[in-house]
Amino acid sequence: MLLEGKTAVVLNAANKRSIAWHIAQALDTQGARLILGYQNERTKKNVSALAEELQRPPLALVACDVTRDEDMTRAASTAAEHTDGIDILVHSLAFAPKHCLERPFIETDRDAFHTAMEISAYSLPALCRSFRSQFNPGASIMAMTYYGSEKVVPNYNVMGVAKAALEASVRYLAYDLGPDQIRVNAISAGPLNTLAARGVSGFVNMLDMYGDRTPMQRGITGEDVAGTAVYLASSLASGVTGETIFVDTGYNIMGL
Ligand SMILES: NC(=O)c1ccc[n+]([C@@H]2O[C@H](COP(=O)([O-])OP(=O)(O)OC[C@H]3O[C@@H](n4cnc5c(N)ncnc54)[C@H](O)[C@@H]3O)[C@@H](O)[C@H]2O)c1
Known about the structure:
Helix content is 40%, strand content 17%. By secondary structure, it is an alpha/beta fold. The protein has a single domain (7-251), classed as NAD(P)-binding Rossmann-like Domain (Rossmann fold). It has a seven-stranded parallel beta sheet with strand order 3-2-1-4-5-6-7, sandwiched between helices. α5 (157-177) links the parallel β5 and β6. α1 crosses α8 and α3 packs parallel to α4. It is globular.
């Protein structure tokens, strides 16, 4: 097992389709002990039920709404109570108000722009700061991103802008934390049918045609993403930091 003896904090699962849950399962299979996060009481029930499916019981379940500093502080202190240090931090959370994902980008209002940036991008450096004193040397931090940060994907809109900020944050954090041998990377996943993705207008149509346009002639699976997460979490990726790694069955290399 690649992650025997390692501890991981995975934020945040909402249900069984969540990328966070796919990653949590793969980390568990590879021997890591988990602290599993959820956003609020609404998602707590799902996550508690999912946690029963893990091979090893989670060290803790933590509520972490990233708009609340006290939640991030409490998640970090819960981790400190249950571990001798953290080896893996997974940032798998994002949000933009629905109206921004169905109307032209030019109509994005100040509050919605701020909300998308705060939850989807600012939360990464904020969480890294909250957990900083607990990272073991060799720790791996990873965040989930999407190609809409680089190219226009209709209706992805302000979320694309937030993902661009998230990817830049990954690089600056990799620079800050590199001297402590802490690595920070992003996984740019192709489309997966999750709660967050279905908030983007036209997502289901996009998913339908996606596979035909990729070199591998298929869409991606949760396991595809989770496999790369395991690699990044493991010592196999010991020299990899500041990168955005595509897990998209090759979609991003196509010109036509
Ligand atoms: N599904 C895709 O097609 C896809 C592709 C590339 C990247 N991603 C990214 O993967 C990550 C996970 O999304 P997902 O697709 O698994 O969807 P999901 O809906 O299962 O997960 C999104 C999570 O974000 C959490 N969240 C929202 N607002 C929050 C807040 N204020 N504080 C804390 N948590 C909050 C939700 O509770 C949920 O658990 C996101 O960053 C998303 O942008 C998704």
